[in-house]
Design a protein that fits this description.
The complex is a heterodimer of chains A (about 110) and B (about 170).
Chain A: H1 4-14, E1 19-28, E2 35-47, E3 58-60, E4 65-67, E5 79-88, E6 98-106
Antiparallel strand pairs in A: 1-6, 2-5, 2-6, 3-4, 3-5
Chain B: E1 2-13, E2 19-25, E3 30-42, E4 50-60, E5 65-74, E6 87-92, E7 98-105, E8 115-126, H1 127-142, H2 149-154, H3 156-164
Antiparallel strand pairs in B: 1-8, 2-7, 3-6, 3-8, 4-5, 4-7
Classes of the chains: A mainly beta (about 110), B alpha+beta (about 170).
């Protein structure tokens, strides 16, 4: 298993983006609410636990979008989102996960 | 002086709500992107103009510059003319870097049919670089031994064959 933080630092160095702050950010989902919005303007949210998301979950942001398919929820890679980030759980879900991101505030 | 070159990223959307990722390498001779246009190419049949069937996001220079977030509209079938206006963009390109992005379909599932969208990038090439390359190539060609004028004068047919084949820079006979 690769080290998320090393990977993040290496990639942001490659992209010439300085990091002002990194920390964890959680989105707790609850029954009855299928859509969540997080503002991540001028910062990045890196999804670390895509494997807990129900199949059919969609995360749509200004810079990247992701739909969890059966072939994808086992992947280890970090998906990065920025801007307005909308999380949409599938309509028939019985699972309400705690979604974890690494928040990167850039310089 | 700069010449304009166009790059096209074309994507096919197969199902409603599909997220299509793309990764495109811009040729290294291009120095700057100055405009873009996101258009529906074919597939969506509609009587009315649809202002948004999906949208593009794209970043340049291998994720270093996020530059494009734009919706894609679908024109009515009886009014196929689309605007040829490019939206302004100003990105200095690093050589051989990636344009990375996604297209997200936002059409209603009931009206969905597979369709094709394109992202046109208008970029400029620095002509002075190209001129320099041509000069280098020409100077290399001058090093070839092409000055056998006696043979050229004597054999017109040979000269004709050289003229017919401009790629043949030096006679080898």
């Amino acid at each position: 298993m690769f080290d998320h933080l090393i990977h993040i630092h290496q990639q942001f160095t490659q992209r010439l983006i300085g990091i002002e702050l990194q920390r964890f950010k959680n989105v707790v989902t609850t029954p009855g609410t299928l859509r969540y919005e997080i503002e991540a303007y001028n910062e990045y949210l890196l999804l670390t636990n895509s494997f807990v998301l129900p199949i059919g979950t969609r995360i749509i942001s200004d810079t990247n979008s992701l739909e969890i398919l059966s072939s994808q929820n086992g992947l280890e890679g970090l998906e990065e989102f920025s801007g307005l980030v909308a999380i949409e759980l599938p309509a028939n879900t019985q699972e309400y996960p705690n979604i974890e991101f690494i928040q990167i505030v850039k310089e | 002086m700069a010449a304009i070159r166009y790059n096209i990223i074309r994507l096919r959307v197969e199902r409603p709500g599909q997220i299509v990722r793309f990764q495109h390498k811009i040729p290294s001779n291009l120095r700057r992107c100055t405009g873009f246009k996101a258009v529906h190419v074919r597939g969506v049949q509609t009587d009315l103009y649809i202002p948004e069937i999906g949208w593009f996001t794209a970043s340049f220079n291998s994720l270093k510059e996020e530059a494009i977030v734009t919706p894609v509209s679908a024109q009515a079938f009886y009014n196929p003319e689309v605007s040829h206006e490019f939206q302004t963009l100003d990105v200095a390109l690093k050589p051989s870097q990636l344009v990375v992005g996604v297209y997200v379909d936002t059409m209603k599932a009931s009206a969905f049919m597979p369709y094709v969208v394109s992202l046109y990038l208008r970029c400029t090439e620095n002509i002075s670089v190209r001129t320099e390359l041509v000069k280098i190539t020409q100077s290399k060609n001058q090093d070839c031994n092409c000055d056998d004028e006696v043979d050229r004068d004597e054999d017109d047919q040979e000269q004709d064959s050289e003229e017919l084949n401009p790629d043949q820079l030096c006679s080898t006979i």
